[in-house]
Request: fold
Amino acid sequence: MFDYTFQWKQAMARLPQMLDGAVVTMEVAVLSMVLGIAMAVVLTLLRLSGSRPLAAISTTWVEIARNTPALFQIYMAHFGVASFGIHFSPFVSLLIGITFNNAGYLTENFRGALKAIPDTQARAGRSLGMSQISAFRYIILPQMLRISFLPMTNQMVWAILMTSLGVTVGMSMDLYGVTQALNALTFRTFELFAIAAVIFYLITKAITLSARLIAARLFRY
Amino acid sequence: MKKFTATAAILLATGLAGTAQADKLDDIIGSGTLRCAVVLDFPPMGMRDENNEPVGFDVDYCNDLAAALGVDAEIVETPFPERIPALMSGRVDVGVASTSDTLERAKTVGFSIPYFAFEMAVTANDSTGISSFEGMKGFTVGAVAGTYEAIALEAQVDAWGEGSFRPYQTQADVFLALSQGQLDATVSTSTVAQANVKTGNFGEISVVGTAPFDIDYVGLFAKRDEYGLLNYLDLFVNQQNRTGRYAELYEKWIGGDLPDLTVSGSYR
Reply:
């Protein structure tokens, strides 16, 4: 049934525009990871703080982030909060949505990593005269990040793929947004989306491979 | 086993020969069903009524086309970006989807002669004080990604050199953003603008004028190489006008003066 004449030349002429879009996609993904990791560390600390209200904030965040669609989170960051008069640009809305999702998943990763570190590590630090904070910072945190490094790579890949949901909030500069716009303009859907898929694949592959190299260097005994 | 292979080969060969002879027009008549891609997020051209049934100008137009062909109509809801995948994957036979007949798109699909023409209207959020097309300069404006008006509006924002443009995925999102104040104004087809303002669902917004863009002619579309079908579509559009059915449908869904579907000084 599928008969379609592929016009690669016509679609490839748009490659520069799509690569510009890929740069924006990377920007959003990297920013959302950096912010997401920072927030996940805070959320993990809140959970460990022993204070019930603080732990509840962290739990609620994780529950919503992990149990609702990423599309919903991004949509709410744009249209949801706007009904309270708070307006974010498409770029910022997308960034907030993905960061929210990243922070939620990473908090769970960190929690899993913490569970893998014996309690005695922190106690050993305390018995050497370190404060609780320094024990966390110098003994627990490095081990935690190490254990959760590869899951973090996974999250980074997911963040890149999530940028494609930005079209729902009017984002047009990222790879998927650019592809959609070109599709509407030229109707060469299948070529354009095939090119976009290859670009997405190459980006995520590059990230997984470089993460593996970094891990091999960083985590040598 | 050998016998089975031979039988399979014969069946396959006759099957292929069968499809090679009949064209799409024959296939539609033979199948007894005409499947139309219709956008149901584009009132009053396509939308859903209280019973969630598809209604609108495009829906009626598809029904008329099916009646002319002597087959049943099947309305396949298709968002704007999915019109091409729907056609190319064989999910629909023809697009009755308010599709602007741009030359760029005509490289991929075949268009009929125009069956409808849109004028563009400016709708603004009342709090902005925008009262004309020029008044949008410097504001945040938006439209449905990839539509005729979105492409023209984005170019205009670039030309003004101030303000910004945002494409949303659906007409509903554009009007939601407009009512929330995320967008200060939008350019849409005047029919959509009137229909959305009239619903009252979008708060303090008003149609404040027209946009000086060229008239947006829209055509029916089918596969580029289906000459038989495309020829039929052309004649069908022409017949709808001669018989007065176009005027009747226009009065039913839009009202007011009929737009002219012909371009003075040109053949098609």
